[in-house]
Write a structure and sequence with these properties.
- The protein is 67% helix and 13% strand.
- The chain is of the alpha+beta class and 420 residues long.
Length: 420
Amino acid sequence: MIALPLMFEIFYNVRKITLFPFKIIRGTTLLFVFLLPVLTVHAQSPVISLDEAVALALKNNRLIESRIIRMSAQKDLKGAAFDPGKTIVSYGTDENNIAENNFPLKVWSISQDFSFPTLYSAEKKARQSEYALSEQELSIQQEKIIREVSLNYVILQTYNEKKQALQLMDSLYTEILASTKLKQQTGYSSQLDVLNAKARLQQLNLELRDVNQQTEALYSTLKLLTGHQNEFLVTQGVNELSLVLREVESTPFVLKLRKEEELLKNSIALEKAKLLPDFFINYFIGTNKFQNARYYQGFEAGIAIPLVVKPFVAKIKAATKASTAASLETEYAIDELKVENRRLQNRRNELLEAISYYHREGKILHDELLRTAQLSWRSGEIDLKTFTLSFENAMAIRFHYLDQLNELNRLTLELNYPVN
């Protein structure tokens, strides 16, 4: 955190305040007591980096595991492309079917239906398209998890930074309140000053409570995403995520749209193949158990053609229109994504300039406000009201920078992982 050692020195090392002359007497006990819980937490809970959190999520997340299983199921279905149906084995007798020995024949037969080979080829292509589509759905789910883990991680880092700053401000206003009450007893401060200090301290308590709740919620979300249920900490500071440039057409989202187009086109070929004739073959053998019995064999083959083609033509037309509509939607989605990317990049460039300004001048102003306020306060040149105003101005600069960095990271993730 920017100027953290300086702020600890100002606000957490105060042992006593005297009014005449105005003086701050410093010690070391409070600082140690404040840091002890932090050190204990760090000793007990491991620190997980952003890369480690992403790796855990890719390994343990149940939504990704579900997609892997679905993809495996589609791979299994590729073997079902050639499906001629069940083979029929039958037995029968007919008193009208008389053998040469004047007794009825008992007939066993085996038959099988087959579709035109083109249908099996079209079915295979459709199955392959469904499997390829499931691969892209897995990639989208993985990128979605990476995006969510990364965003929650950097937001959590931001809240940790704000929490530390708010704790420093809370300690400051606790000292201010004590000092104001003491000055009121001697007539150098009014009841209004005491009330203002109390109001600000209560507001800080509410802000700290809100930050703590948000922090707990973010940790819970990260545990759910990563499948890591043990307590852990994120790294200090806030990661500034890098932009990964790639063509819109190469993103899993667009590749998925292309695979959906391909599947619909294969569906057209499949419906057309259903217009082709089917075949069937039947082999049978008959005999009986009486004297002079013999075996009679036979073979039958046939072809099935659609006499009513209207249902088939309707399905082909519907599949063709669905494919055309999907192509239009894909092209529109690609253009829309390009427009959105340009908007996000323009906004990201604005934030980069603002953050660069903070590093060039804002941070210097932040540090100088704190330094000057400290020196002026110690020398008695300013009162506590002016001191706290300077301090909160410095904190506002810091908080604004953290908010901008937060938005920058969010935009970067949206550009890196478009998962519409």
